[in-house]
Amino acid sequence: MSLRATAIGFTAILMWSTLALLTTLTGRVPPLQLTAMAFSVAFSIGLFFWIGRGENPKDLLRLPWPVWLLGVGGLFGYHLFYFMALRNAPAVQASLIAYLWPLLIVLFSSLLPGENLRWYHLIGALFGFAGAVVLVGGGEMLGFDREYVPGYLAALVSALIWSTYSVLSRRWRTVPTSAVAGFCAVTAVLAWTSHFILEKTVWPAGWQWAAVVGLGIGPVGLAFYVWDWSVKHGDIKALGAISYLAPVISTILLIIAGRAVASWDLAVACGLIVGGAVLASGDLRRRAPGTDT
Q: Which DSSP string corresponds to 134-188?
């Protein structure tokens, strides 16, 4: 378990924090089309990895089918159900349920060999979720209407998919991170296919193209490569809890860009999430210097 790998994983969370801002800058590009375009860019990043490391893409064909199922199911499945949730339930409630994935990572990771769930892991993750409730819910009581049950279920499935993908990736830690490029390629193909069936194509205009490319390079590109390596070699419980910083940083960026308004809710959420992250990273803080392996 590496402190360096955990710190590198934090860069994925930083990149995911730009997702909302960049998405707002892409105009009216439909969600599945946007996913397809972004993952096409993400695949091109993988090509550079392969060329730089002298790897043969054909080696991916030798990977066991469960690895492909996990990789493609994680990337495409999460986005598919997340978009379904946003289309079939109010954004606030759907987002809140989807934000269960960091807490689920902390819980599911205790099932991995050599991993133990401590009280500070659980409390830290719960603090993070409480912060997400305050941030996403705007400090108000959240009501859940039966009318939107399909959307709520889709949001829950998205959280289950991403947390399962993240935890099981650690079980396949011998699979090289460059394999993520193959997952991105298949995800792009599935997204393009779904788009042409379900949506009307709307191409970006002007600087919107830069936002689309930015998505593919950052939160829907490099972030997945970094996350894959980090969950395989870092402190997965700490990563789960720290992930709740994403909505906080995302809101701050939206405020800076003039697309959101600052409030006390943000300060409270930040305190809960940072406190929870500190608690959940107890293993890292207790590790003596020089034991980073």
A: HHHHTTSPPP--GGGHHHHHHHHHHHHHHHHHHHHHHHTTTS-TTHHHHHHHHHH
How far apart CA 156 and CA 214 sit, in angstroms, is 28
Of residues 188, 223, 204, the one with CA closest to residue 17:
223
Q: In whole angstroms, give the CA distance from residue 139 to residue 47.
A: 44
Chain centroid to CA 185 = 18
Question: Which whole number is the average pLDDT over 9-26?
Answer: 87
DSSP labels, 172-238: TTTS-TTHHHHHHHHHHHHHHHHHHHH-------TTHHHHHHHHHHIIIIIHHHHHHHHHHHS-HHH
The residues spanned by each domain of the chain are 3-286
What is the per-residue pLDDT across 133-188, written as a single tens digit (0 to 9) for each? 776 665 444 555 678 788 888 888 988 999 999 999 988 888 888 899 999 999 99
- CA–CA separation, 250 vs 86, rounded Å? 18
Locate 224 and state its tokens: 């997945």
Q: If DSSP codes are grouped into helix, strand and coil, which group holds residue 239?
A: helix
